[in-house]
Here is the input.
Amino acid sequence: MKILIIGSSGTIGSQITEKLATSHEVIKANHQSGDVQIDISEPKSIEAAFEIVGKVDAIVCAAGNVAFNAFSELSREEWEVGLNSRLMGQVNLTQIGIQYLNDGGSITLTSGIIADYPIAYGTSAATLNGAIQHFVNAVALELPRDIRINVVSPTVVTESLPIYGDYFPGFNSIDAEDLAKYYLRSVLGIETGQTFKAFAGN
Ligand SMILES: NC(=O)c1ccc[n+]([C@@H]2O[C@H](COP(=O)([O-])OP(=O)(O)OC[C@H]3O[C@@H](n4cnc5c(N)ncnc54)[C@H](OP(=O)(O)O)[C@@H]3O)[C@@H](O)[C@H]2O)c1
Here is the structure.
């Protein structure tokens, strides 16, 4: 398979890339590095990246920014970070990406545990994670040519605890290597319209 991985240089994306690259052709797409650069918050950047990459069998998105702040402090600009990236970035990636997916291809997006278990400063993330999960559930019914779509909802990643750990008091973390398996299940399996909740035990 030819697989486009957006966010391949990241904590999560690098593990997905490592696992899939052993037996598939992987195209690495990051904001600033990789085989191709892409900014999912800009539809023109998504189109330009696919023009370079061409047809693929699978698209994986392990990227999508969102702002964390107390609800009373969340500015319009902070809401727009997540709206343009976490939500519409992944929606636009899907809408543009299906034009470049071969028959029977797949799309795998990323949300997060905050959709189910709210945390302080996480209202924007909770809202937009929930929205992307509902998007996947609905759009799966409309995708053409046997194209599948799923979303992985990770708990906090163990390797990210030094950065995000204080936001997730008492939460179980998941190692990036174990989390990557949920993405492989989406890419290589047959399921569609699903949210893979990578947080058993929370
Ligand atoms: N880590 C966690 O604990 C955790 C838990 C739940 C959900 N998530 C979500 O999972 C996703 C990946 O997390 P991570 O920890 O692996 O992130 P990370 O280590 O910060 O890596 C982010 C990746 O996304 C790329 N990227 C950043 N902005 C982008 C944009 N506008 N368009 C395209 N690519 C962009 C980066 O590319 P460059 O390196 O070129 O900047 C990098 O490859 C994020 O959406 C995050 O919110 C993470």
About this structure: The mean pLDDT is 97. The pocket of NAP is lined by residues 6-13, 30-33, 38-41, 62-65, 85, 110, 112, 154, 156-157, 160, 164 (CB under 6 Å). The longest strand covers residues 101-110.
